[in-house]
Amino acid sequence: MQLHVTCLPGDGIGPEVTLQALRVLEAVVDGFGHDLELDEKGVGGAALTACGNPLPDATIQACLSSQAVLLGAVGGPAFDHYPRDLRPEAGLLRLRQELGAYANLRPAVFYPALRACSPLREEVVKGTDILIVRELLGGLYFGQPRSIEGAPGARQALNSMRYGEPEIERIARIGFGLARGRRKRVVSVDKSNVLECSRLWREVVTRVGSEFPDVQLSHMYVDSAAMALVLKPAGFDVLLTENMFGDILSDEVGGVVGSLGLLASASIGGKVGIYEPVHGSAPDIADQGIANPLGAILSVALMLRHGFGLSKEAECVEAGVISVLKAGMRTRDLAQPGERTVTTDAMGSKIAEFVQLAADGGR
Ligand code: NAD
């Protein structure tokens, strides 16, 4: 199969982790007999520095003419003083919009080999396998009007949370559809006791849920869900939620399973899917060769599964991750005091090697 991918490394640890993700993708392509056409383009602070725009037209065009986008991360303190529209994060939001990627899938799985990394007791976190399905193009992050106005000392800030029925309906369908391939349970998260957007959310999700009688639907307020995720994470299957709640809860789940560095994401539903780790550009550890590349590598697995329908290849990458963790390889964020750590590069090359050997063995 011909895989046409645009890679947007971005800022901070973005280039370091995407380098390893590409290495693994190349091993898949070689090992399983596919062809890779790869474009690399600028996004975020890197593009802002190069051409004054965090999302240049050439980047959008390259993404639109490929089949999948592999993104690192954007942002950093060097860009925080830019006006909102020029900030790297604005480039990322616009990219999601341009590609129409409204469904953000964020799986979080507990790996027994990493039992020591979770702040929770093993009997609590054991069996955790959650798929967060987050609406990505609506809510507070995109709602208009938005502003900061007034004289210094008396300024007023405004953001708008806005959701339309079709937006809720389409993300709910994705959530229920994915639940069918899993344990057939959806928890829809909202704040319908306080917010109108959430009242509409609950009503529409319930209506869509009736089209999926084989999937069990329950509702939870976001505050209660935040607590339940820590008390009983293994009780969740698909967690369906709006943009900001999903953003916050998925970082929490990263902590629950051991490290934000492990989490991958797929943003789908539009013309081209975007596959990226959940973490940010981690400027505090950039350029030191210590970043955990697993979130980016597992994003390649999501790309293979959701972008190209290559489940066998996706499973092989996931097996590679489990294998290196079982073998005791730990980047600094995963290591316990006194444990030996490996570099970003060492972790990536071991997984690429695993994939190559597994593919050769399967021939
Ligand atoms: P962050 O995710 O970058 O980092 C949070 C903490 O987790 C840091 O201590 C960091 O060192 C650690 N961490 C993150 N990824 C790691 C990895 N792969 N390996 C090891 N440790 C890792 O979040 P932040 O510090 O709040 O944000 C930093 C910048 O990233 C900001 O400019 C923010 O706007 C941006 N950001 C971008 C994205 C994105 O590109 N999708 C997402 C979140 C934040």
Task: Provide a concise account of the structure shown.
With 363 residues, the protein is of the alpha/beta class.
CATH topology of the largest domain: Isopropylmalate Dehydrogenase
Query: What does the largest sheet look like?
Result: 10 strands, mixed
Q: Helix/strand/pairing class, anyone?
A: alpha/beta
Q: Measured on Cα atoms, how large is the radius of gyration?
A: 20 Å
Strand order of the largest sheet: 2-1-3-12-11-4-5-10-8-9
Bound molecules: nicotinamide-adenine-dinucleotide
Give the amount of beta strand, in percent.
15-25%
Number of helical elements: 12
- Count of spatially separate domains: 2
Class of the largest domain, according to the CATH hierarchy?
Alpha Beta
CATH architecture of the largest domain: 3-Layer(aba) Sandwich
End-to-end C-alpha gap: 16 Å
Q: Helix share of residues?
A: 40-55%
Order of helices and strands: EHEHHEHEHEEEHEHEHEHEEHHH
Keywords:
363 residues; Isopropylmalate Dehydrogenase; ten-stranded mixed β-sheet; two-stranded antiparallel ribbon; binds nicotinamide-adenine-dinucleotide
Walk me through what this model shows.
The protein is α/β, with parallel strands linked by helices and 363 residues long. The chain has 2 domains: 1-107 and 261-363, Isopropylmalate Dehydrogenase (3-Layer(aba) Sandwich); 119-257, Isopropylmalate Dehydrogenase (3-Layer(aba) Sandwich), CATH 3.40.718.10. It contains 12 helices and 12 strands. It has helices spanning 14-32, 44-51, 57-64, 88-99, 122-125, 165-180, 196-209, 222-231, 243-257, 294-307, 311-326, 344-362; strands spanning 2-10, 35-40, 68-73, 103-109, 129-135, 147-149, 156-158, 185-190, 216-221, 238-241, 264-268, 273-277. A 10-stranded mixed β-sheet has the order 2-1-3-12-11-4-5-10-8-9, with helices on both faces. Strand 8 (185-190), helix 7 (196-209) and strand 9 form a beta-alpha-beta unit. Helix 1 packs across helix 10, helix 10 (294-307) runs antiparallel to helix 11 (311-326) and helix 11 (311-326) crosses helix 12. The longest helix has 19 residues, at 14-32. The mean pLDDT is 96. Nicotinamide-adenine-dinucleotide (NAD) binds at residues 13, 17, 73-76, 89, 92, 260-261, 276, 279-285, 291-292, 295, 333.
